[in-house]
UniProtKB/TrEMBL annotation:
BP terms from Gene Ontology: regulation of DNA-templated transcription
Role of this protein: Component of the Mediator complex, a coactivator involved in the regulated transcription of nearly all RNA polymerase II-dependent genes. Mediator functions as a bridge to convey information from gene-specific regulatory proteins to the basal RNA polymerase II transcription machinery. Mediator is recruited to promoters by direct interactions with regulatory proteins and serves as a scaffold for the assembly of a functional preinitiation complex with RNA polymerase II and the general transcription factors.
Complexes and interactors: Component of the Mediator complex.
UniProt record similarity statement: Belongs to the Mediator complex subunit 31 family.
PANTHER family: MEDIATOR OF RNA POLYMERASE II TRANSCRIPTION SUBUNIT 31
Identification of the protein by name: Mediator of RNA polymerase II transcription subunit 31
Subcellular location: Nucleus
GO molecular function, one term: transcription coregulator activity
Lineage top rank: taxon: Eukaryota
GO cellular component: mediator complex
Organism expressing this protein natively: Amanita muscaria (strain Koide BX008)
Keyword field: Activator, Nucleus, Transcription, Transcription regulation
Length: 118
């Protein structure tokens, strides 16, 4: 029989998971990444450790909850200091990421529906 402490712990774990999932999915947005870089958040050691911790979302049991696959790609890229530094110093890089993401979805949808991309 579950105690109220068990129920509270499960609720707390679920809330934490949902919060982490929402954050990881936000990483799919190049403009959000740029904002984090401009605020120097990507330079903070505690935040870098948090990004490393969030890699558990790449495991099959957790990746299935991700709706925006670019989030996992960006999470992986954020593990590299060069990527984090480039986000901060290069506004054109944000646009490049956005363009690459757009092109991926445009051509992926075309392949999915068996039509040639415009």
């Amino acid at each position: 029989m579950e105690t109220s402490d068990d129920v509270d712990a499960k609720a707390a774990n679920r809330a934490r998971f949902e919060l982490e999932l929402e954050f990881v999915q936000a990483l799919a947005n190049p403009f959000y990444l740029h904002s984090l870089a401009q605020q120097n958040i990507l330079e903070q050691p505690a935040f870098i450790n948090y990004l490393k911790y969030l890699l558990y979302f790449k495991e099959k049991d957790y990746a299935r909850f991700i709706h925006y696959p670019h989030a996992l790609h960006h999470l992986e890229l954020l593990q590299h200091p060069q990527f984090r530094a480039r986000l901060k110093k290069d506004d054109a890089f944000r646009e490049y990421l956005h363009h690459k993401q757009f092109e991926h979805w445009r051509t992926w949808l075309a392949r999915l529906h068996h039509i040639s991309p415009a």
